[in-house]
Amino acid sequence: MFKALLLEKDDAGFRAGVREIDESALPEGDVTVAVAHSTLNYKDGLAITNRGPVVRKWPMVAGIDGAGEVIESRHPDWKPGDRVVLNGWGVGETHWGCLAQRARLKGDWLVPLPGAFTTRQAMAIGTAGYTAMLCVLALERHGVKPGDGEVLVTGATGGVGSVAVALLGRLGHRVVAATGKAAEADYLMSLGASSVIDRAELAAPGKPLQKERWAAVVDAVGSHTLANACAQTRYGGVVAACGLAQGGDLPTTVMPFILRGVTLAGVDSVYASQPLRRQAWQRLASDLDAARLEAIATEVSLDQAIERAHDLMAGKVRGRIVVSIG
Questions:
Q1: Is 228 exposed, middle or buried (0-12, 13-18, 19+ CB in 10 A)?
Q2: Which of 56, 59, 280, 323 could tie 133 with a disulfide, CB 3.0–4.6 Å?
Q3: Cβ of 313: how many Cβ atoms within 10 Å?
Q4: Taking the model in full, what pTM does it have?
Q5: Which candidate, 156, 98, 152, 92, places its Cα nearest to that of 128?
Q6: Is residue 89 left, alpha or beta, with left meaning phi > 0 and alpha meaning psi from -120 to 50?
Q7: Domains of the chain
Q8: Measured distance CA(218)–CA(238) in Å, rounded
């Protein structure tokens, strides 16, 4: 038997609870992992609170991220005792996830946990931080370098935003953090932001072309915020888009793209290739100050995860929530 955060939906309605589950119920997979830590991402929040159609197979064990140790393997790349990290691949959506003491997964989904990180630190990063690194890699692929100008990070107190600020600041970029939480300015400056602006400056409908300001943007918000970010990006700049906290719409025009040569680079973390995943985790190990993770992360138990998921969806969470599976 093992403990898991189980989501159920049937004629009686939706239920989320921590349950004891028999190991025989685990899904198909060639690697079984003893999960030490998981985390709560925005997508987890949507699933656990039933606020969005994330789960596509019922019942479902929640948790799109996990870090722990292999205990059984039929996959040639993994053996018992290996430390691994899992992000995405539909886990927690169509395949049982990692907010559980046991997870049975496909070995092709796993990445070696860098020696620089504990399982707790890996989940302080989680999909949010791994996505932030994918955004930084996208900016670099398009030629953005420290010293090119200001880099805007939207949704800066969230998981993606917090890690993006920390990464970009340490790499030498001049980071401008946009947030609706004015009281968190000191937190953002401590992570590496050079200045903080009110998200209200970006959240309302704006002109299709605005004064050029940003050399690059990491956006986790979407909607009018992303539209305004594109409209304010300098000639030849790049905008990495990875989220929709404000909305999934994009009320913009082609003007920034055809008159200023702006690039809108989409970033997907769920099905990113293995080489890109490994590159992202290697870069996180070298470029992210592990001490920053202590400021970013709050740890809770599995039994507290449902309550904290509701807090996350209510905008009451700063940074990252690590779940100790224990």
A1: buried
A2: 280
A3: 18
A4: 0.93
A5: 156
A6: left
A7: 2-113+291-324 (3.90.180.10), 127-266 (3.40.50.720)
A8: 9
